[in-house]
Amino acid sequence: MRPLSNRLQVIFDQVPVGAKVADVGTDHAYLPIALAKAGKAESIIACDIKEKPLQKARENIEKFGVSTVETRLGDGISPIKEGEADTVIIAGMGGDVITHILSNCPWIKNPGVFLMLQPMTGAEVLRGFLNSNLFSIEKEIPLLDAGKVYSVMLVRYSGKKESLPAGFEFSGKVSAETNEGRLYLEKQRKRVFDCARSLSSIDGKEAEARYYTEILNHLNTLLGI
Length: 225
Known about the structure:
Helix content: 40-55%
Strand content: 15-25%
Shape: elongated
Order of helices and strands: HEHEHEEHEHEEHHH
CATH superfamily of the largest domain: Vaccinia Virus protein VP39
Distance between the termini: 44 Å
CATH class of the largest domain: Alpha Beta
CATH topology of the largest domain: Rossmann fold
Largest sheet: 7 strands, mixed
Structural class: alpha/beta
Strand order of the largest sheet: 3-2-1-4-5-7-6
């Protein structure tokens, strides 16, 4: 089997040994197969909303001779019953899509369920949802993959809403201490800077411009600017 992408390798490395894994939006099932071949997970359910990628996943599972990966067709986490998974992976989707998937699964509101989330876009939407719905981001791992920078969020339900600084939705728990972290924060800073600059020149958008300026100040502080 070909090596995992850097995105998937970071997730693979964070999966607890002996976990009961659900990989939502598995596509070709490369991550579940790698977990199975390494004997890292007790059980693995690979889900996808579309039959075509799921069929490709089945072919790959057979090709690589792993027996601990089960495939299921369905939307989001809906094919998984409570108790069947204690580690839920949702990677390679937009933050808005991940938010929709999480909002339709009540049993993940359990401290015993570990969420590993990797949004391709809209990370701020996802972070806002998590805090509003009493999930805690325990850690974020910034990474580079194919020249682009992303973050893997390690999340659990806490039942408590945290008091977070303005701009947290854009930074999360990423720090500038690593090259990947700095690149991530710089990417977010550019997005926010462009929004603040555009809004500042539009009549009636002063409040929104101030909002983005406050976020920009937060990101500047993290970057030491």
